[in-house]
Amino acid sequence: MVSQGIEDTEVPGAPTTAPPTVPSGDDVRQDVGFYALALRKLRRHRPAMVSVVVLLLISLAALVGPFLLPAAWDGPDLYHQFSPPGFPHLLGTDELGRDLLLRVLSGGRVSIMVGLLATVVTILAGVSVGTIAGYAGGWLDNVLMRFTDAMLAIPAIFLLILISTSFGQTPTVIILAIGFTAWPQTARIIRSVVLSVREKDYVEEARAIGHGHQLIVSRTVPPTPPSANEQCTTNDTAPHRGPADRGRRSRERKLR
Fold first, then answer.
1. What are the CA-CA distances from residue 219 to residues 91, 202, 223, 224 (Å)?
2. Which three-class secondary structure state does DSSP give residue 199?
3. Most buried pick, 13, 65, 144, 221, via CB within 10 A?
């Protein structure tokens, strides 16, 4: 009883300690990486998730479908010319009796391969030129950017026709042709990012501790602009935005 009374008695002038508070869910903040944040936003965007599921289904059908169907995509069947859609030809046949569904799936495999590899070529060329131009500066930056401007001034369709007629229309030539005509825009975006990154504190610290230019360009500068790579990729594949879309986006910014 005596000890309990002593504990309950407050000493005048003694500092009072507040009980620890548990932060709520809204007050808790944690560092989230770029890709984790992008994945979180993608999951919350329902139309984007539906599009991802549709693209995955189409890609899976194009990759696996030709192996499941019995006939060959170029195998003629003169007994079933111009057959209507039904079983076993779900989309019918053409003038030589070839299964249209199988031909569509086989062509989809080539289209997916060309699109992915052309994007890789575009990113590699654009990132390399943009990084070197933005980091080096001076005359090298002027030479690379003037060459980039010259490439942008030439219509891409003319270059594609010239390359395809000169070297053939094989998938390899098409991939290199698309990558060769699409890299200038990527190079300009990456250069603008590198120009702002090269003056950062961590880049100056890398120079101060004796890192060479090759090490700084290959390890210090590239981890910073991952969003620029995604921007370049979406710019190459996104549809053209008309005046109505731009007006809608401006109204959304005003409401924010």
1. 51, 12, 7, 10
2. coil
3. 221
Please tell me the predicted confidence (pLDDT) of residue 235: 52
- The rounded Cα 96 to chain-centroid distance in angstroms is 40
The C-alpha atoms of residue 16 and residue 77 are separated, in whole angstroms, by: 92
C-alpha distances in Å from residue 163, one per residue of 107, 159, 166, 236: 22, 6, 5, 20
> Residue 224: pLDDT above 60?
no
Among positive and negative, which fits the CA dihedral 79, 85, 87, 89?
Answer: positive
Yes or no: domain 109-236 corresponds to CATH 1.10.3470.10: no
**Torsional sign, CA 235, 179, 115, 123:** negative
Give dist(CA 218, CA 132) in Å, integer: 10
Please name the amino acid found at residue 82: F
Is residue 178 within 8 A of residue 160, CB to CB? The reply is yes
What are the sequence ranges of the domains in the chain?
Answer: 109-236
pLDDT 10s digits, 107-162: 888 889 999 999 999 999 999 999 889 888 889 999 999 999 999 998 888 888 88
Residue whose pair of structure tokens reads 């959304």 in the numeric block = 252
